[in-house]
Amino acid sequence: MKKIITLVLLSMTGIVQAQIDATLLQHTKKDSTEKGLNMDAVYDRPFLNLSISPVSVGGYMEANWQYMGTEGITEGHEFQMRRMTLFLSSSIGKKLKFMSEIEFEEGGNEIVIEFASLDVEFHPLLNLRGGIIMNPIGAFNQNHDGPKWEFTDRPISATQMLPATWSTAGFGLFGKTYKADWMMGYELYLTGGFDNTVIDNDQNKTYLPASKANFSRFEESASGTPLTTAKIAVRHTNFGEIGLSYMGGIYNTFEDDGEEVDEKRRLTVFALDYNHTLPKWKTFITGEWAWIKVDVPNNYTPQYGNKQHGGFLDIVQPIVSKKMLGWENASLNLGCRLEYVDWNVGTFEETGYDIGDHLWSAMPAVSFRPSQQTVFRLNYRIQHQTDVHDNPAAKTGGFSLGLSTYF
């Protein structure tokens, strides 16, 4: 009898496990409407959903090899596991949705919560978001997932001029609407902000990404005042999406225990972004340009610029889209990224000569996608960069080969 009972229990366990494997694990491509804006990127991700649980799980990874050299000097062959990112989301209840993004870099030595917010839906045009927010400056900061791009490196303007994946704690409103071929969306947030490292850093120049190292921004603002971020975007089916964003506030500590220790110094960023897929050739075009203005103290040397600008333009052309190597919807693509950054716009007062510290880069690319969620990519970088005195540019070149996939 004991043997019979054991066999029955094992059989039932096998049946239950098979039902779990067959019916409870479901992939959902995204949790948004078919028509989307860059602001929907947080929802436009594949998730693994357990139908017995309100929690969904997903993520992506990026790994690559590169061989780069500058003026004949090279680090040799470099193998890099750039990052692994986990998504956790939950539909807590009616009109209540939690989303999060946790990134692991440097083999797990650096773990960052890039996004963790509760969305409260009142109306399609009026929703509340609170928590750790990905500030919508430009388009790349929100729409940065590796598998969406044909290039192993993130744009230079987004990582070394703007602080890529810049997120802060705060609250705000967002919404969108559409009619026929038109769609419009907006976002408005008040969050923690930058700090003195914008002009006091190991780069010896005005450098916004330095503030990413200050994790106390998730608990307090260095200036004691909020950073304001606002964006409006409009999409037309035939002409693509264009977005205009603003981010600004006081970045320095100007008071200490109620006493004034410095004058208020502001930081202001404007960004313009655009993306569109040409329907006839399926050519994908996306670009972004940003302007930065920073109040720099008068006693700082000219190498600390008070104006910066830069951006990138990506053009990707599918060459073959068909069943290849056993994959039903594979595609082979050609692409090119053009980039320019000027960290110090202006001239030296003493001489009238142009200040250098600028860079341009071109990166042709070949990519293969066995599916839309996975990409293999080969890039070659051509880059020229000048120092602050505008001496002849240092030339950098090299190959990078990598892969990125959602999971």
Summarize this, please?
The protein is mainly beta.
Can you walk through the features of this model?
The chain is mostly beta strands. It contains two helices and 20 strands. It has helices at 2-24, 156-161, and strands at 25-28, 47-50, 55-70, 73-93, 96-105, 110-123, 126-134, 167-179, 182-191, 227-236, 240-250, 255-256, 259-260, 266-278, 283-294, 307-324, 327-342, 358-371, 374-385, 394-406. A 16-stranded antiparallel beta barrel has the order 3-4-5-6-7-8-9-10-11-14-15-16-17-18-19-20. The chain has a two-stranded antiparallel sheet with strand order 12-13. A hairpin with a 4-residue loop joins strand 2 and strand 3.
Can you tell me the CATH topology of the domain at 135-406?
Porin
| SS elements, strand count | 20
| Average pLDDT figure | 90
Which overall shape is indicated by the principal axes computed on the Cα atoms?
A: globular
What percentage of the residues does DSSP assign to strands (E)? over 45%
SSE topology string: HEEEEEEEHEEEEEEEEEEEEE
Strand order of the largest sheet: 3-4-5-6-7-8-9-10-11-14-15-16-17-18-19-20
**Main pleated sheet:** 16 strands, antiparallel, barrel
Into which percent range does the helicity of residues fall?
Answer: under 10%
Number of helices: 2
Q: How far is the first residue's CA from the last residue's CA?
A: 46 Å
Structural class: mainly beta
Low-confidence stretches: 1-34
Return the CATH class of the domain at 135-406. Answer: Mainly Beta
CATH architecture classification name of the domain at 135-406: Beta Barrel
Whole-number radius of gyration? 24 Å
